[in-house]
């Protein structure tokens, strides 16, 4: 006989988390929630929106914030003036605000110069941007490097504007300040790092690139406090100028970095696309090519257009920087429009992107190729304290792993290959390799 469970005052407190809530947490809810918190922030390549974004990320991982002054020469570029928007709007002849950044950040062209003027319908129209093919969406436009102003609006609204005078106001500051970026370094025992980079400059666009920001942040959180052989260097930078500035500021450290992953547009429901680095044969290039070979996901060759992989791959640095996306930029209608909103991204897709990145980075940790420095016959391990047989006890796993590693460390086989050949687990192999390396019997080669 079924009896209802007795009610008590403790019921509320002891109630387990509902199944759907648990599921949400497991399936990217935290990443999606981060995107939701960051979505309303008015970001650009500089300014308080970038700072607010990075400060929100500091609630999750201990990012260091760096400020680089306006005017600083960074290779062939200069750090621009800092832009901060209070509000921007268009008023009709009756003083009614018909376009207002209070309703959507995308309404103003990013980096519009401060102004307050009255103009005709025809004059205003020269500064308007809309999408006739998607008449209800607002496009995303910028004017970082040429002083100008403009507004973006739904095409259906634009064509309905009567022929009258309009007041246009951009209440912003464009003055000496700084470019802000965030960085987190998780060092590895090898002294070599993988760079993980994501752009933080877009306002109120979810897939491009709150998705990349969320995945990179939780990727950093995942690897914090873990022992790494290849260190991870996370950078959260404004697109193009931020990556260039970071490279200029960190030029001396860049020799530690051979491989990089740019993460962007990883929240939509499309298949994955990995764009290879310029060299095309870097560590991550090989890992993603291998992982995607038997799936519907695709690998593309490098092209000099796209995200910040262009800067990292430039011949003067030649980092093997690939880019992980889902549907590639420009290949979905919502790209750079108001339709790239929180409905366009998906918690499950974010979680899947995070898991893929975790697996690829873990795999990279085992892609070390060692060279046996004593390759003629087996080295005498006992003399080096690496082989301690006790009576008839079987050889320990670590000792067996040492033999596998010495035997296959011919410069051709990676630690991952040896794992597959030996059936031994990665942790045991890593421990064995560390012992052999410390004894001078192995020399590591990364990538
Ligand atoms: Zn973009």
CATH architecture of the largest domain: 3-Layer(aba) Sandwich
Mean pLDDT: 92
**CATH level 4 superfamily of the largest domain:** Zn peptidases
Major β-sheet profile: 8 strands, mixed
Q: Share of helix among residues?
A: 25-40%
Quantity of strands, as a count: 19
Give the spatial strand order of the biggest sheet: 1-10-12-11-13-16-14-15
Give start-end ranges of low-pLDDT stretches. Answer: 1-15
Q: Given this structure, which CATH class of the largest domain is correct?
A: Alpha Beta
Q: Please, how many helices?
A: 14
Radius of gyration: 27 Å
| Beta-strand fraction estimate | 15-25%
- The shape, in one word, is elongated
Briefly summarize what is shown.
With 447 residues, this protein is of the alpha/beta class. It contains 14 helices and 19 strands.
Features:
single chain, 447 residues, alpha/beta, Aminopeptidase, Glucose Oxidase, domain 1, Arc Repressor Mutant, subunit A, 3 domains, 8-stranded mixed β-sheet, 4-stranded antiparallel β-sheet, 22% strand, disordered N terminus, binds zinc ion
Structure description:
- It is a single chain.
- This protein has about 450 residues and is of the alpha/beta class.
- It folds into 3 domains: about 10-80 and about 180-365, Aminopeptidase (3-Layer(aba) Sandwich), CATH 3.40.630.10; about 90-175, 3-Layer(bba) Sandwich (Glucose Oxidase, domain 1); about 370-445, Winged helix-like DNA-binding domain superfamily/Winged helix DNA-binding domain (Arc Repressor Mutant, subunit A, Orthogonal Bundle), CATH 1.10.10.
- Helix content is about 30%, strand content about 20%.
- The chain contains 14 helices and 19 strands.
- It has helices at about 10-15, 20-25, 30-40, 50-55, 120-125, 155-160, 205-225, 240-250, 285-290, 310, 345-365, 395-410, 415-420, 425-440, and strands spanning about 65-70, 75, 75-80, 80-90, 95-100, 115-120, 130, 150, 165-175, 180-185, 195-200, 230-235, 255-265, 275, 300, 320-325, 370, 410-415, 440-445.
- It has an 8-stranded mixed sheet, sandwiched between helices. Strands 5-4-9-6 form a 4-stranded antiparallel sheet.
- β11 (about 195-200), α7 and β12 (about 230-235) form a beta-alpha-beta unit.
- α7 (about 205-225) packs across α11.
- The longest helix is centred in the last third of the chain and has 19 residues, at about 345-365.
- It is elongated.
- Zinc ion binds near residues 202 and 336.
